[in-house]
Amino acid sequence: MLFGRTPVLPTREEALVGRPERAYAVPERHTVLGNPLLGPYPEHLEVADFALGCFWGAERKFWQTPGVWTTLVGYQGGYTPHPTYEEACSGLTGHTEAVRVVFDPEAVSYTELLKLFWESHNPTQGFRQGNDVGTQYRSAIHTHSPEQAAAAEASREAYQKVLTSSGHGTITTEILPADDRPFYVAEDYHQQYLDKNPAGYCGIGGTGVSCPIGVAKAEG
């Protein structure tokens, strides 16, 4: 699935077996926001999961947003339990590189996070994002409630209209429930990578087309 071949998602039978437990430790707190990475989270907060290419730059987009309580990166949407980064990048787990966003809905709405999601990448590219090619870079939203699902679908429809009028192609973003798509937290060195490595690689870049929903509160 690598070395110039067109990326293809594995079937459940083709996917790597994985392991019953995480193979590495995860830091307790966010290096920028100072809050715990892993739940349980305070009851008034909500969780959103987004995949928009390389998770290093994607995570920074969200932690810079007022109202976001913590962020963490991981692997989601595939078959392999508790994968490693190398396994996810092999294309044999089926996972995306995802960002979990824990937010205060009184301070930032899910709709505003959706606007930031759409405008921070090109959701029409299928199994790639810019120069990053692979099934792990595909665009996806994993929803945690019927309300999130409805908002995500409505935002996709709205953004498709303005993308089409601007000469862009069809959105390939998956919108699927998170219930049966566990979020497997990534290794220590990936968490808040661009805070630890300010000059590090960031492959995130949008289409330049504004999404006609909400009001974005973050800048890259």
Automatic annotation (TrEMBL):
Q: Which UniProt keywords apply?
A: Oxidoreductase
EC number of this enzyme: 1.8.4.11
Keyword Oxidoreductase found = yes
**The keyword DNA repair belongs to this UniProt entry's keyword annotation:** no
Which Pfam families does the UniProt record give?
PMSR (PF01625)
NCBIfam families attached here?
msrA (TIGR00401)
- What is this protein's function? Has an important function as a repair enzyme for proteins that have been inactivated by oxidation. Catalyzes the reversible oxidation-reduction of methionine sulfoxide in proteins to methionine.
User: This protein is called what?
Assistant: Peptide methionine sulfoxide reductase MsrA
In the UniProt record, the gene name given for this protein reads msrA
